[in-house]
Amino acid sequence: MESGEGADGPGGPGGPGIRFGCASFNQDSTSLALGTKTGYKLFSLTMVEKLDCIHESAETPDVYIVERLFSSSLVVVVSTTMPQRMNIYHFKKGTEICNYSYPNNILAVKLNRQRLVVCLEESIYIHNIKDMKLLKTLLNTPSNPSGLCALSINHSNSYLAYPGSATIGEIIVYDANSLVREQSTVTMIPAHDSPLAALTFNSSATKLASASERGTVIRVFSIPEGQRLFEFRRGMKRYVNISSLSFSHEGQFLCASSNTETVHIFKLEQMGPSGGDDAASWTAYVGKMFSAASSYFPAQVSGMMSQDRAFATVHLLTSGQKNVCTLAMIQKLPRLLVATADGQLFIYNIDPLDGGECMLAYKHRLFGVDDDQGEGTESEGSEVTETQTCPSYAATAALPASGPVTATLTGYSEDGGAKKGEVIPEHEFAAGPVCLDDENEFPPINWCRDGTGGGQARRS
Fold first, then answer.
1. Considering the entire predicted model, what is its pTM?
2. Closest to 158 (Cα-Cα) out of 99, 248, 224, 107
3. Which stretch of DSSP H or E encloses residue 304?
4. pLDDT for 383-401, tens place per residue?
5. How far is 124 from 172, CA to CA, in rounded Å?
């Protein structure tokens, strides 16, 4: 599951203890991407004791956005040196696929196997990831200076969530797949009284979790209905800045990290009528009693009754800095991963039955001696070839999306094999996703025929 925001925005890395510009886990939490002062790094997360740096690039300085598409070779990079430009690389071939420029600074980029979403402060751009055609432009969205948005990783339900207000915690859920309809808004959810701070979908795109700027309550809603399913209280003593929310792959757990030293893990337990596992604990029994009685109390009282405490917790050594968390299965056991802004990755063991305080399994340092001295190193074969074949489309990107663009592209078949020289009609790209789970497969795009691996998206 994709998770988290950068330690710094377009202003660039800086401040005490800040070691990198961003950290993000890929959509299935099998790799970690870091944007650094000298470029970016990709780490494999298949083992607890060993952290493999699978790629390091020193071609683009001050990277504050880096996102990898699952386990493919497609990586999206944005640098503070050119915050209005998005570069897409094939990191295994060491080539730039394309680049696009936008009218304002890029605040966030989200991607799944169907869509690539670029979020600016007051607009959102939705691209078809297979040919990078601009499908939809959402203009005049509510002011969103942090670039908060979430894109579901389920390719059959590409839901996009973003703030519907700058003053209250309203969520707009948008169908990024069914763009042929004039009205693609699925639902509007009045989630919180204060503005939103964090959003995330579960892997099946059936649930959406949110937190507000107060950071005291985390709520989970059903998708696409928008009904409130769960409400978890992170704490009552102080307001905090929740920077990261992430579901476990099966959707049973939800983790939340903030600028405090505590990371919370909540368990999503349905209070069913039968006497199954959910009714086995005294807490579940009391929760059902409160739920049944809540309709007889005022809204504020019943709301307090429906809130559950954390199932498990982690206490970090430091506080006051952003970190990114995710839940993953590593070596067949559930783990909590926390990447901190001082350049460390903590891996904790989770007891899925009893919860409680999680035990630290391993701590990794994400930077070596050369990084401490500001001397970036480059992995063998990681050189990125700059290409100048992709013009800016800032002048046209700000305009509302027009009707369907008819074009033909040399593309990839659904099994990932290149159809070299064969012209594929544009409409066939929407038939289904290209499988990209295998790291050896190329990204599902081939936008130029100059033989360099870079490219230019054709637009009419």
1. 0.75
2. 224
3. helix 299-305
4. 222 222 233 333 323 333 3
5. 12
